[in-house]
Amino acid sequence: MYILHIEHPVPDYDGWKQAFDSDPVGRVKMGVRRYQILRPLDNPNFVMIDLEFDTAGQAEALLAAMRNVWKGVDGKIIFNPQARISQVVEDKEFEKSQIGA
C-alpha cells in the first residue's frame, strides 16, 4: 500500500473543503482506495490529507495531476502545498480491550 501525504495551509477550511469535494482529478478513477483529512488541534487553517493507493504509480499519477490543479489555486485556496509518497511497511491495529490496559 502507498500513501500520498499532502499538507498545506488554507485561508478558509470550508472553502477549501468545497473545492476538495468537487474532486477535480477524479480520485476514485485515479486509484484512490480511501483518504483521510486531518487538521492540527492548534491550527484549523492547516490540512493534511492521506490518500491510499495499491501502487506507487497510481500515487505518482495523482500527484502529477494535483500539481497541475495547484498551479491555478496556490495563493487562493491553498498555500505552498507539500507532498510525499510513502510505502506502508507495517500496519497494526490494537483491540479496544488492549488499549490502556
Q: Please, could you describe this protein's structure?
A:
The chain is an alpha+beta fold and 101 residues long. It has two helices and four strands.
Write a compact overview of the structure shown.
This protein is α+β, with helices and mostly antiparallel strands.
Provide the helix percentage.
Answer: 25-40%
Oligomer state of the chains in this structure: single chain
Structural domain tally: 1
Morphology? globular
What is the radius of gyration computed over CA atoms, rounded to a whole number of angstroms?
Answer: 15 Å
Strand order across the biggest sheet?
A: 2-3-1-4
> Would you tell me the overall average pLDDT?
94
Q: Descriptors for this entry?
A:
101 residues, alpha+beta, Alpha-Beta Plaits, globular
Topology:
Elements: E1 2-9, H1 13-21, E2 34-38, E3 46-53, H2 56-73, E4 82-87
